[in-house]
User: What shape does this take?
Amino acid sequence: MSNDHDDLAFSSIHELAPKIKDGTVSPVTLTEIALERASNLNTALNALLDVWHDEAIAAANEAQRQIENGNYLGPMHGIPIGLKDLVDVAGKPTTGGSKVLEANIATSNATVTDRLNNAGAITIGKTHLVEFAFGSAGVNAYMGDVHNPWDLDKITGGSSSGSGAAVSAGLVYGALGSDTGGSIRMPASLCGIAGIKPTYGRVPRTGVLDLCWSCDHVGPMTRRTVDSAYMLNAIAGHDPQDFASSKQPVPDFAADIDKGLDGLRIGVPQHYFFDSEIVDPEVNNAVNNAIELLANNGAEIISIPMEWVGDGRSINVIITLAEATAVHENLLAEHADDYTPAVRSRIQSALDMPAVDYIRAQRARQAFSVKMAEATKDVDILVTPTIPVLAHTIEECTPPPGEVLAQKSHEIPLFTSIFDVTGEPSLSVPCGFDSTNMPIGLMITGHAFDETTVLRVGHAYEELAGWHKQRPPID
Assistant: This one.
């Protein structure tokens, strides 16, 4: 592939959109580049489960005609994307990464699919995932593991493993992921891209397979934070078909993206997130360097005591197990042997959970969310590591026979899952590389329905630090 094509493959939506609008870059060219990279690299990465070559080329030609006729729809128009295989596309399989649903053909589009189509995005196929999105490492014993473009022996993180790898390796310019315990932000961190979990209810989940009703979020994964703002503009907003969908007004998430850091108050937790017993020194160093850069460019850093904050992880685990078991109760009764043993064991482990445990967890969640709101009332955002540990190998995260989870997998969602409990918007952006040249993520979390400030800080940091300019070695 030519250097020009490489440069286009790793361009951001922010860079490409004005060129598509003025005709300098063609959606057909971008789609051909995406499909060529998928053809060349997906065998090694296993990032895409399904590639729709002919449909994608037809959609690109239609986008080209619309734009030439003066019907430019906005920054997503003509942009090749991928959809995590939890998201329905009419006439296509939605497998959830499992043998259980290998014959499940969607009869209609998910709401987010329709909204991206209406924004002019070009879906080239479905991205890989952990079976039923139930895992943090990115391994899938049935459909194969996704490999990290920065080191093929390393995990991508889960469960939006394929979305993370596909964006990172330049197979697509954006992808949808889902996040129940960190499944947008964990692969974003480990693959060196941006990914935002919007506020709970901000993006409707109609036509998206459930894992845990009260913790599931759908959101964008992109090369740049501003690209995630464009995707969020396309998919956010109330959907009467989703009972959890918020009626909060939807702003232009990119409108304040260039406002910088002046006057912003950034909270840094004193507890848990920087605990030397949990956090690898290389992660700690990278995140503290990022905080210093923010402080040196207009932000006020405020240290916040949070002795209780680690409780959020256990709340998330109990609620997810209980609700996932309820989601899968009928499928499990009919297709137990089609689940991989590890995922089946995880789901079955909650069948005997007393209802009182779930109720206690939901009550604890309410109290936890009140504490979080009180602790953060005087700051605009929180900044923490996304993941406390360095990237593990796939082998280290593959459960031994008879085990539900590999021990290494337990460490990955310790931080991200806390904000699935509160439902607050939370973004991961790259903030450096470890000694083996694997990405490290910075997590930026804001108040409910204030994605705008979260995205503003993420973009400002990217512009200052420049980590997004690095490309993975795979080609």
